[in-house]
Amino acid sequence: MTSTPPIDLDRDALENLVKNAGKLLLGYFGVRGHLQVVEKDGAGDYVTNADKAVQEDIFKGLKEMFPEHRRTGEEILHEGDSNIYTPPDSPNGFTWVVDPVDGTYNLTRGIADFAVTIGLLQGGWPTFGIIYLPVTDELFSGGTHWVPRLNGSPLNSLEAYNSHDAFAGIGLGERTPKPERSQFLAALDEEKVKFRRIGSASVSFVQVMLGNTDGYVSLSERLWGIVGGIAILNAMGAVGTFDWERGNFNGRLRLAVGKRGFIEDKVRDGGILAAFLEQSNPQ
What we know:
Keywords: Magnesium, Metal-binding. Its cofactor is Mg(2+). GO terms for molecular function: inositol monophosphate 1-phosphatase activity; metal ion binding. This is Carbohydrate phosphatase. This protein is an alpha+beta fold and 283 residues long. It has two domains: 11-154, Fructose-1,6-Bisphosphatase, subunit A, domain 1 (Fructose-1,6-Bisphosphatase, Chain A, domain 1); 167-278, D-Maltodextrin-Binding Protein, domain 2 (3-Layer(aba) Sandwich). It has helices spanning 11-26, 49-65, 104-108, 178-190, 201-209, 227-235, 260-266, 272-278; strands at 37-39, 46-48, 70-73, 94-102, 115-122, 125-133, 138-143, 146-150, 153-154, 167-171, 194-196, 215-221, 239-240, 253-258. The strands form three sheets. It has a seven-stranded mixed β-sheet with strand order 3-4-5-6-7-8-9, with helices on both faces. Helix 1 (11-26) runs antiparallel to helix 2 and helix 5 runs parallel beside helix 6. It is globular and about 50 Å long. 42% of the residues are buried.
């Protein structure tokens, strides 16, 4: 990663912005008839009125704080909006990436594993992020120039990796071909990696931050759900496989991120798990 100068941002104000948006989201959780759910593309990808309301709230706050910065989010809120990432005009240009509800399907089923997340791309690199879990009221933030913290208290660096008890979060995605999904699960078994599928990259990242898992390996992610979490994890000493120099972040993305020992041990170059991450994914 190239060196990036720190941006002048009010961390507390950004945390409050995301937390207030999370409280707005919490008003939809577990309330029958309150959520209006639409399947966006016929592949298990859902959007609700909560997603749109939360993104609108965050976009408004970001525009007030950083009127010159670009913003992109998962939902298209107004005619003419785009959820396509466009690289900034300058090498150090700023783009805020927002996922208003990472784990929408969990939300629709009354499951607490969902999050609000924002991330800052500076010159195409994740440099700052926030993840907020509304149900448990846990807010994680940090980045290149900001000490990672949970509800205002510093987070420790990632714990040492135990190669005899590897445990990872995984993401599969409904668009990943079923035969490949089966092969991926078989590869995890062959590599002796225990796993859990949560249905939210952000919540899976949090499990790595807390030391509950060693890493996260996914065959299908969107940019919005990964920037904030990866910025925080990088600041905690994590390493990953995603090539941020590629510039084109649209479509379905494949990646692994976690403790250095886990990535080197289980997702090493030439390994069977690495082979899955090198393949392309349907858009």
